[in-house]
Write a structure and sequence with these properties.
By secondary structure, the chain is an alpha/beta fold. The chain has 7 helices and 10 strands. The protein has one domain: NAD(P)-binding Rossmann-like Domain (Rossmann fold, 3-Layer(aba) Sandwich), CATH 3.40.50.720. Bound molecules: NADP nicotinamide-adenine-dinucleotide phosphate.
């Protein structure tokens, strides 16, 4: 399996590189020129294409011949970075490739997600302030996901809860909608978010799904497991 990791130098990206190498995959990483050194620990084990992730030529080169593409969607800046990145991957990945994108719970696919007033207020206020400061554009991440959901590629959009560092707790559990009690704990180890992304490459049940994930050992996941009969 040959895969491309778009945004490989970030925290999530580096965990995904490790999981992919552990599985014996051939890995091509994409990151900004200034971040190439962050991938030094993988020197000789992965190939790196340096450049902006929304540069269509960079993505075309990086995803050539790949069976899967893992993309870290970040709403940074106000130059359509997320939607530009997503569009480049959608357009240039080979037909039939597995495409897995990361984002947060704030993205909704069908409008049936339930959010607390706190989350709604945070997204509204912080989102507006961050956009005004030209730091973050949450609307562009929404647009990126709208395009992914509308595409006929083999996509999965993995929606992360709040994140923390720490040892793996195993593969996160998931639900189609936030507000589902299984997700109440709202915390996932970053290493396990990465694990879910990499495992999704081989899980066809996740094609055309937007799973909202939560840590496997969190109280809400454990409580749900205790009340769910084994298959
Ligand atoms: N943080 C959270 O609590 C949280 C919660 C839920 C979901 N998520 C999702 O998780 C994913 C990764 O989140 P993370 O917090 O773990 O971040 P991360 O892995 O550290 O990723 C940040 C990414 O953004 C890039 N980046 C940073 N500054 C940039 C700039 N000015 N222009 C362009 N690219 C820039 C980084 O590249 P360089 O290495 O080049 O800097 C890196 O690839 C995202 O999809 C996010 O929506 C995060």
């Amino acid at each position: 399996m040959k895969i491309c990791i778009v945004g490989a130098s970030g925290k999530l990206g580096q965990y995904m590189v490790r999981h992919a190498l552990d599985r014996g995959y051939e890995v091509v990483g994409v990151c900004r020129e200034r971040s190439v050194d962050k991938l030094g620990a993988f020197k000789g084990r992965i190939s790196v294409v340096a450049g902006a992730t929304n540069d269509r030529e960079v993505i075309a080169r990086a995803v050539a011949g790949c069976d899967g593409v893992l993309t870290v969607l970040v709403p940074l800046g106000v130059d359509n970075y997320s939607s530009g990145t997503a569009q480049a991957v959608l357009d240039h990945a080979r037909p039939g490739a597995r495409l897995v994108f990361s984002c947060g719970w704030h993205i909704t696919r069908d409008g049936l997600d339930v959010y607390s007033w706190k989350v709604k207020a945070l997204v509204k206020v912080v989102g507006r302030l961050a956009k005004l400061a030209r730091l973050v554009d949450l609307d562009d991440q929404v647009e990126a996901c709208r395009r992914i959901f509308a595409s006929d590629t083999r996509w999965t959009v993995v929606r992360g809860s709040d994140l923390e560092e720490g040892d793996s707790q195993g593969l996160p559990v998931w639900s189609r909608h936030t507000g589902d009690p299984i997700l109440d704990s709202n915390i996932t180890r970053r290493v396990d978010f990465a694990l879910f992304m990499v495992e999704a490459l081989r899980n066809d049940e996740l094609v055309h799904e937007a799973p909202a994930i939560v840590g496997r050992q969190t109280p809400s996941a454990i409580a749900h497991a205790a009340t769910t009969p084994a298959p």
